[in-house]
Protein: AAA-ATPase
Organism: Glycine soja
Amino acid sequence: MPKPNASFFFFQNHVPPFSHRIRNLKTQTLQFQFPIFTPTNKFSIKPKHTEMEILSQMWSLLGLLTVLQNVLPSQLLSLLHSLYESLQDLLSPYSYFEIPEFNGYCGVDLNDLYRHAHLYLNASNHAPATACRRLTLSRSPSSNRISFAVAPNHTVHDAFRGHRVAWTHHVETAQDSLEERRSFTLRLPKRHRHALLSPYLAHVTSRAEEFERVSRERRLFTNNTTSSGSFESGWVSVPFRHPSTFETLAMEPELKKNIKNDLTAFAEGKEFYKRVGRAWKRGYLLHGPPGSGKSSLIAAMANFLCYDVYDLELTKVSDNSELRSLLIQTTNRSIIVIEDIDCSVDLTADRTVKKTQAGKLSLRSSNKKTTTSSSFTRCEESGRVTLSGLLNFTDGLWSCCGEERIVVFTTNHRDSVDPALVRCGRMDVHVSLATCGAHAFRELARNYLGLESHVLFQAVEGCIRGGGALTPAQVGEILLRNRGDADVAMREVLAAMQGRMLAVAAAANDQAENEEAVGVRSPESVLLMGSPENWDAFSGKKRKEQHGCNNLDKKVKFFVRLRSLTRSDPGR
């Protein structure tokens, strides 16, 4: 057996046994964080103080950078910053485009592209914006719509033509000031930025304008007579909240469809009007008896297109210059309404007055008198709205100062309006609103009474065909007054229509009797009887006897027809 050497005795005396080493290893594992493998010691443990040393070194580096920022010149720091950004742009696969809130450095001119980006990202149907981690919710006092915006310093992602883009909303507070600097940063793939930038921004603008048109609060304007300064607005407004729509409008289905199609084509025809060289405007003439629904149709058009309404009162306008100023102050996407155009101002008399004055001036031989009278005429015309001024308002050069406008004239009597106002190019669409038809009555019964069918519907439609139709306003008032009982309401409507038929028949008989007694020459009678000589050759007694017999036959036939229409069949 070999004799142990000195090293063996040192190892035996100083190295603990294996079980003791394992016990110490467990204790060290609880005291230290993680083992480190080294060639000399396979189970060396790194203490906690190493992590604290790393943090202290980082804070020391930040402190050094702060000292260098205060010591180094600003030009050198700007150069270092630009070099860092250039290096970052060189290595980054994306391109960044900043869109500030205001143009320039004055902070006065609002950047329209920033507004469009804000509206585009805030659209309620914009799915990428709703997936953002943090949103800012808001609601205006005059609207029930809840809008949300991207929170400051947050990013929202979007997709366009198969590429992924990102928007970042930056909000920075200026030093020693409460003002905030807002901007959007658009991130695009660097390889496709030239092919994506222009089409994507056009897409953003289109979607933003559509969202603004639908979501913004509509206003009802009227011309203000108290404005005295040239910088004051000639319009005052209130929120426009008229509930009339095409779904609730009492109108024949075919006419309603044609109007909606025309309005849609007009709203989407920007490129068409530009291509054909016409101003982007449309003229509507609504004529019909009072209560036929002209104002309700205007409100339905405004709600359908989401346009503002400008109710122009011509009696408050002093002259043509003020009328032109009011036109300039109207906004795009608006409806300019002049109700009762035949009663607002005496426009049809302009031609007669000018002819009369021209005849008087031609009889005067003195140049002094002619000059004085001409200047008086010009002053008189400049002191009020003339037909020429209104024609320039609707179809002149000043009518092209805005886009997407609709001009609406209403009148109770179509023939009393000057033909120059209603020709094509000024009033493009003429809508005749008469009494309530069969489809319109069913629509009113559905809206007011909730009726889809009733036993008296056929009797009412018979009265409508027989000349006893009422206006939608009259029918609506009867249904509103009796909305608690549908049967009573239907009977009252039927009675009113029967009374209307009797009144029309009595008025026709009285008019015919008066024409026969007085001998009035009506154009219809002249056409029926030939020349006026033959018409005068008839004796008054013979015509009166024939007329009496004809009236008796007409009355008998009328009452028989009325009885057949109002007779209700129990089995029906």
About this structure: The mean pLDDT is 75.
